[in-house]
Amino acid sequence: MEALLRRRAVYVCQSCVRSARQPLWRNYSSAPPRPDIYDVVCVGGGPAGLSLLTALRANPNTSHLRVALVEAQDLSKIRSWSLPPTKFSNRCSSLTPSSVKFLEQIGAWEHIARDRVQPYQEMQVWDGVSGARIEFDWAGAAPNTGTTIAYMTENLNLTSGLLKRLEELGGVSTFDNARVENITHGEETEELDLREWPVVQLSGGKQLSARLLVGADGANSPVRSFANIEAKGWDYNRHGVVATVELEGEGWGGEFTKIAYQRFLPTGPVAMLPMPGKYSTLVWSTTPSNAALLKSLSPKDFTAMVNAAFTLSTVDLEYMHTQKSGQEEEYSWRMEHTPVDHRAVPQVVTGVQEGTVASFPLKLRHADTYVAERVALVGDAAHTIHPLAGQGLNQGQGDVQSLAKTIEYAVTHGQDIGVGMSLESYVSERYAANHVLLGVCDKLHKLYSFGSGPLVPLRSLGLSAVNALGPLKTFIMNQAAGNGMKVF
Predict the structure, then answer these.
(1) What backbone torsions phi and psi does residue 91 show, to the nearest 5 degrees?
(2) Helix and strand numbers, DSSP H then E, in the chain
(3) Where are the alpha helices (DSSP H) in 358-419?
(4) pTM of this prediction?
(5) Helix crossing, 155-169 with 47-58: angle to 10°?
(6) Between vectors from CA 36 to CA 35 and to CA 38, what angle results, nearest 5°?
(7) Which tens digit of pLDDT belongs to each residue from 232-286?
(8) Rounded to whole angstroms, how far apart are CA atoms 305 and 294?
(9) Torsions phi, psi of 180, nearest 5?
(10) Which residues neighbour 179 within 8 Å (Cβ) at sequence distance 6 or greater?
(11) How far is CA 27 from the centre of its chain?
């Protein structure tokens, strides 16, 4: 028997060798599972973690793996999450057609409340200083490609749908309301050698041993810390202000042609992204002091500031940020003296949903690697990006799709799913692509932070040139949508 194991040493780990010395040898995937030993333990029940477990359970080649989910929040509340049709959560994401296709493949898309998902067909982007503009729409750029640029949905709608799909599939040991107290390596016993296996210690005393530990646990990842993987980057000294706002109508394109808007201001971009009906989600990147002011304003003054962000000059807008109140009157007076092409900007915002104005700090982080021995990182645990391109969640979905494919390959070829050699293809596929996108967004943020000087006409010339070059614009749209040749 030991001679057989030596011939198969390329696949068999030491724990399996020790088990094989018992009277009866059994493969790990078919042996009765021990209560605290899992093939995959995923820490983090956000979109990335839930998508990974759903993909593994939905695939016949990996559905036999024993998997566990660890999440600090109460998942029952997320699973049963519901809001009235006129109320929307302030944390929303833009899903590319590629991400939606993946969700369809794993059977999760049908569990997402579609009446709370809003596809959009056009996007208007312009320089807040010079007014140079670029317009994205598939109908004009590539008529045979499809008309949807992306799909807006609340993060809670996505996670709720994924949880429902996981419940439908079954076979996942879920530990919610459970905080990770510590992560260590296991011990050697008479039956098993788990000295190289991560052991997750939960509040309450439960311990989970993992053949592969997946960190989908956010930017301050305990899993990444356990693996001694450093994440390098910097803070932008900017906050992202989010809110759910109501417009005077369903947009200039009507019900069936929704338009997203983004204006680059020296303090950061401000974006208005369509939600169903007359509602939109606001993402405004600005200085911490401006963010604090916006959160302190009355609903009427906040609404005036949002309208001003898309219509007034940067000088007028800067002045309005110095006022502690009275922005509604100030905006009305300044609009009397400001010519505006109203169809080139979002429809007038008429109100803000109560309790949705919030902010979060913006930062760039990128882990030195996504894997260590028996550890893999996905989503924000691996990288954190500026929200100006709306690609954060899509990057995570790309990670998950790649990692699920990597695990499937290891299983179907008799490899140990946790060793570094089995995980190399995941890193090679995702690291460079994510690094390029992180760099592009970082350079765009810095390029548009200049309010004056020679860079302003140069960047405006470049934006106008891209807008005039149809093939180049189509290529950029394909990259953003996850279609075609992958460059970033």
Answers:
(1) -105, 100
(2) 16, 20
(3) 392-412
(4) 0.89
(5) 30
(6) 100
(7) 999 999 999 999 999 999 999 988 899 999 999 999 999 999 999 999 999 999 9
(8) 8
(9) -75, 115
(10) 72, 202, 203
(11) 37
